[in-house]
Amino acid sequence: MEDKKTDILVITPHPDDAEFGAAGSVAGFVHQGKSVVYVVCSNGDKGTDDINVKPEELAKIREQEQLAAAAILGVREVVFLRYPDQGLEDTPEFRKEIVRQIRIFKPDLIITADPYRRYFWHRDHRIVGRVVLDAIFPYARDVWAYPDLIEEGLMPHRVNEVWCWASEDKDINLRRDITKTYDLKVEALKCHKSQVKEPFSKEIEKWLCTRAKELAEGEKFKLAEGFHQVEIWW
């Protein structure tokens, strides 16, 4: 099987979530010479308030928007799993697909949505975060978790660490300097034209900047993204 190993695997619920949560850090990794791959779980086909835009049409639009955003950031590859928006569930089949992607790309670091955000949080985000964490440990690591994947040539892989975006403030234990890559984050986010529309886009930009400054408070840099980091040694 072709060696597709990457340094960082970003597993995102919908097109645009990774740009909101981690684009500044992704651009920073790419500038350091590290390889980054996206796995986009759902097709985003419910993400509109325009009744005239059909779900199948929107899914195609959002896929192209995600490719454009990834290109700006320097993401090496984007994998689209194409599950329906608002349709992700914690099933053995979905977990196995995430394990497959982990074993294909063999990342040292996985970045994904925090499943433990309290109260109002998109269900797809909760499901993806939980499934990704379970897939990392123990399923991707254990040799007999999915014997048929071994038959496909996908051997077990141990991930070194995971970063979760959109954590509660009390759970953020990693603040990543994005001062030099913030503009790329905004540029990539603007590629999602179906989601970031005027005048809403101006409010988003204002919120993004304010939040990035808040996350950098007390640090030696001006702008940051915040994550809950877990190092995996077992």
SSE string: EHEHEHEHHEEHHE
Largest sheet properties: 7 strands, mixed
Unreliable sequence segments: none
CATH T-level topology: Rossmann fold
CATH homologous superfamily assignment: LmbE-like
Q: What is the correct CATH architecture?
A: 3-Layer(aba) Sandwich
Supply database-style keywords.
234 residues; alpha/beta; 7 helices; 7 strands
Folded structure, characterized:
With 234 residues, the protein is α/β, with parallel strands linked by helices. It has one domain: Rossmann fold. The chain has seven helices and seven strands. Helix 1 packs across helix 6 (182-190), helix 2 (55-73) packs antiparallel against helix 6 and helix 3 (92-105) packs across helix 4. The radius of gyration is 17 Å and the shape is globular. The mean pLDDT is 95.
Question: What's the topology here?
Answer:
Layout: E1 8-12, H1 17-31, E2 36-42, H2 55-73, E3 77-83, H3 92-105, E4 109-113, H4 123-139, H5 147-151, E5 161-165, E6 174-177, H6 182-190, H7 200-215, E7 224-231
Parallel strand pairs: 1-2, 1-4, 2-3, 4-5
Antiparallel strand pairs: 5-7, 6-7
Helix pairs in contact: 1-6, 2-6, 3-4
Short summary:
This protein is of the alpha/beta class and 234 residues long. 41% of the residues lie in helices and 18% in strands.
